[in-house]
Amino acid sequence: MVAAVPRFKLDLLADRGFYRFATFSAATRTGAAVCRRAPTRLSLPILEVLSDGTYLSALVDPAIRGREREELLHEARSGAKPDPAAAHVVRVVEYDVSDREGQELICLITNITDPDALTAAELAGAYQRRFEEETANGQLKSVLPGPGKVLRSTSPDLVHQEIWAYLLVHYAISSLICPAATGADSDPDRISLLRAVNIVRRTATGTAAIPS
Fold it and tell me: Residue 205, SS3?
């Protein structure tokens, strides 16, 4: 699947292990555009199937059960907006990944309910691309400092300076990887940062200019 770059800005993107009704509510109350993968056993009743094949559902506070829950779902099906402290109307995007032989259904939930604002493909693409952010964070934490190492500085100002140094080094190496990958007709994401770091360590003989 080709990752589509969303036209609409997503403020919060999260994986399924981080879902809680309370945190979803807190994020949406700020006005943030939220998209997150739903945990496997999350109940997502179909309220309305939309033109693009996605559907509207309702996230209900798990503490609310029985008749009160049914009343909230009935209210949502009628088009009314439920009390955000108790429930949220969300849009659900379901798809499987072609290279996984359809064995894993990915289910995304978002408070962006209008398909014209953000298509299903764009939401799926945004979720797929989250790995780039996670990979970059992992590179900063483990590849650049080396295994088992932490920040050495002992004062807030020096810690701030050391973090910026790692960020600048990561940017400088990435700026070498991208044109090299492009010249080889390859995806920069497939280039190992660790191998690039080792090559730079072997060949760097002095200070170098970082492209702006």
Answer: coil
